[in-house]
Amino acid sequence: MKKIMFLFFLSFPFAVSSQVYSIDGVINDAENTPLEGANIYLIENKNGAYSNREGSFNLSNVTLPDSAVISFVGYNTQKIKITNNKQLLIKLNPSGNILEGAVVVDSYNRLRDVNSGEIKLNSKDIENLPIVFGEQDIVKLLQFLPGVQQGKEGQSGMFVRGGNNSMNLFLIDDIYLHNTSHIGGFLSAINSDIIGDLTFNKSGIPAKYGGKLSSVVAVNTDPSSDEFTAKGSIGLISSKISIKQPIKSINTDIQISGRRTYFDLVKPIFSNDGSNSMLNGNLDYYFYDFTIKTKTRINNKNEISFLAFNTFDLYRDNNEDSYKDMQWGNTLLGLEWKHYYRDNIIGKTIISKSNYKFSFEGIAYPYTYTIDSDVNIYSFKNQTFIQQKNNKIKFGVEYNYNEINPKLVSASLNGGKLKVENPGILYSHDFSFYISDEFAVTKDLLINVGLRFSNFIRTKIEEENNLLSNKYYYGIEPRLSIRYILDRSTSLKLSYNRIFQYFHQATMASLSLPIDFYMPSTIDIAPQEVNQISIGAYKKLEGFDLGVESYYKLISNMSEFKNGSINNLFNPNLYDDMVFGETHSFGLEFSVSKKVDKINLMASYTLSKSISIFDEINDGNTFSSAFDRPHNFNALINYEITDKLNISGVFVFTSGQNYTAPTDIRIINESVVVNYSNKNSERYPNYHRADVSVTYKFENRKHFKSKLNLTIYNFYNNKNPFYIDYIITGDIADGGVEIEKQVTTLFPILPTITWMFEIF
User: Fold this and answer.
1) Is 128 left (phi over 0), alpha (psi -120 to 50) or beta?
2) Residue 631: pLDDT band by 50, 70, 90 thresholds?
3) What is the rounded CA–CA span in Å between residue 110 and residue 106?
């Protein structure tokens, strides 16, 4: 017996040393930003894993002790010893050799991530984007992705796979942002300096998101900093500053950012009254935006954040025959509570308000009129994230109270004030809950399945008897994404999503101006619905990162004005002039990128078609939608001449936007009647431009670094139209009235110099 006991205790250490464990951990950068796609490899076990979007990873069937090598593109490789199965927290430091101005596209993430149409960037990626007008503009980058287009000069936002701008969901810290760009898409309304990380989805949209049909852009801000830092720029056209300040006594971080253009102040130097662009002395334009973000760590399990975000734009055309004065802006306020139940279970609660205001004063012959529009959304969200060994589970609820004043119009005709009835404020509620699970069936097959249930209530006050009437809608929205890895360099992806959008956008297409009305679904008008399927293949081949993706999207119950004419302004019930139909969008998207020594190349091409069918438009025949873009090509090249000198070029080409144009004008019974062409039968000229940028880095000093950027926007001075007016010429009295087409451009060739700096 003693001999048996001796042999047992002799063998016990060896039994312990070969015990099997499961190892969990998180990989962050030095600023605690999760690194998605970082690799951890165990030398003895010859086993490895990649971190997910939260930076988390899991290794099963591991024998300890062992040594692990952790690596990520652009960061120093780290080697650590693992002796137990405690959760690991690993931080990687930048290697310092990332190319200035390089587009960061992690091809390995594209191969391994489950969502086919998803791009994720962190603050380090954004810092290495191309510089245009002293800005590393994130929305500009998104417009370089296949399937994403800028509509035309002067149009804000994006058009994704045949959808209009109202079908894109933009969130800043889970707060809805209505208008996403300053005029002309010149710069994004989102200052890149406030972005901690960003996720973009155009297909396989996760169940967490709803209410918008085409895409999701989710921006998270992060004021975290161990010490005072400041970064900003001073340029000929705009300047900005962003300051981070920790207050360690109360465990609080604060970030304050601001930006303003002063083109209106310096333009008189270059003004040319004969110019048909922003250099015209009768045109004025400027914008500003600012952000305040605070984050307070109450204890190890609780964190509270506050966000205040504001934008404002003004555009004024003082020409006597085409006077226009437009002002618009966003205001976002939000409070977030984050609670860590356990290391792998996180809960978030967000209370917020989002406001958008638009006002317009102008002349559209024969009327002089003003338009005001207002959108208010009060929101409550509760979200839970659970990271398990083989599952990533998310579930939550969302409630929104919506107040929308689609239009408040006053008008006059030949100096006499007209009586105009307006719809007043429209009230509605929407409630939804969701659940999703991402799990690996095998090491090569990854699936994300989700379900979202949405409910919408349209509230209407009956003025005659002062009664409250409601209309209920609900939607069941399945989501599915599948990724299968064929080999280390090839993957296939399939996704399907159904989404309901309970708000309709109607555009005054005939004015060719950014005047849109937003109305909730009613008793007679059902919500819009999209069903989209997407199939893609991704390949890494001899240094090239290749991607091809096809899609088909059906938008049901899409809204349009019958003719998009000025007469809709004076309709007391906008719904009376709205019609509904289907839009079919399908396309093929190609992308390629490659790094050759000090040269980075990226290009994408989209071949697509978007066709609409409305019983009450064009005699029920098909017509191209306003957002049909048959061809879209983007290219970017970046060359690091030396460690200090960098040059980059950008080229954009997209088919022009369709619109409805007036054909003739008649005087009938002393009244002016304008006739219009078939729906969207006219197309803007193709939009194209090239930008060139040169950046010089100065020698770093202690706690200070800076660089100088020269950008030439619209290098070959292409006259892309901003809007097309139709001016009435002649005299009504003698019936000699004609329509004359007048094209206004916005941005000519514009060189600018910007000095960028950072204090740390």
Assistant:
1) alpha
2) very high
3) 7
Q: Cβ-count burial of 88 within 10 angstroms (0-12 exposed, 13-18 middle, 19+ buried)?
A: middle
> In sequence order, what are the beta bridge partners of 473?
456
List all residues 6 or more positions away from 619 whose beta carbon is below 8 Å from its beta carbon. none
CA-nearest of 448, 549, 536, 533 to 497 is 533
Alpha-carbon span 55 to 38, nearest angstrom: 8
Q: What is the pLDDT of residues 308-342, one digit of tens each?
A: 999 998 888 777 766 788 888 999 999 999 998 87
- Which residue has 């003698």 as its token pair? 734
Exposure of 115 in the CB half-sphere (CA atoms within 13 A): 23
CB burial of residue 376 (10 Å; 0-12, 13-18, 19+):
middle
- Report how far residue 310's alpha carbon sits from residue 567's, in angstroms, rounded to the nearest whole number: 33
**What are the residue ranges spanned by the domains of the chain?**
2-92, 107-759
Q: What is the tens place of the pLDDT at every residue in 343-375? A: 678 899 999 999 999 888 877 656 777 888 899
Q: How far apart are CA 480 and CA 207, in angstroms?
A: 9
- What's the one-letter identity of residue 435? I
H or E element that contains 111: helix 107-112
| pLDDT at position 509 | 46
| pLDDT tens digits for range 279-288 | 666 777 888 9
Alpha-carbon gap, residue 504 to 501, rounded angstroms: 8
| Top-confidence residue, 562 or 363 | 363
pLDDT exceeds cutoff 60 at 718: yes
Asked if 625 and 583 touch (Cβ cutoff 8 Å), the reply is yes
Residue type, 426: L
CA distances from 437 to 346, 396, 454 (A): 15, 13, 18
| Residue pLDDT, tens place only, 46-96 | 777 778 767 788 787 788 888 888 887 667 788 888 887 777 888 887 654
Q: What is the mean pLDDT of the chain?
A: 80
Please report where in the chains the tokens 């349209």 appear, as a residue.
458
Q: Indicate the residue type of 740.
A: E
Q: Which amino acid is at 661?
A: A
Give CATH superfamily name and number for 2-92: Carboxypeptidase-like, regulatory domain (2.60.40.1120)
| Cα separation, 659 vs 565, whole angstroms | 11
Does a cis peptide bond (omega within 30 degrees of 0) precede residue 478?
A: no
Tokens found for residue 358: 């638009």
Topology of 107-759 in CATH? Maltoporin; Chain A (2.40.170)
Give the residue-averaged pLDDT of 492-496.
Answer: 94
Dist. CA 34–CA 676, nearest whole Å: 54
| Cα angle, residue 290 at apex, residues 752 and 264 outer, rounded to 5° | 40
CA angle 61, 342, 80 (to 5 degrees): 45
Say what the pLDDT of residue 669 is: 59
* Overall average pLDDT of the 126-144 stretch: 70
Identify the helix (H) or strand (E) that includes residue 267: helix 263-270
Q: Which two tokens stand for residue 618?
A: 């064009």
> Which tokens go with 424?
């007043």
The DSSP symbol for 132 reads: B
Two structure tokens written together for 207: 């169940």
- What pLDDT score was predicted for residue 211? 93
Q: Which of 446, 440, 445 has the alpha carbon at shortest distance from 390? A: 440
CB 684 within 8 Å of CB 659:
yes
SS3 state at 15 = helix
Instruction: Say if residue 169's pLDDT is above 90.
Output: yes
Query: Token match 């090509």: residue?
Result: 633
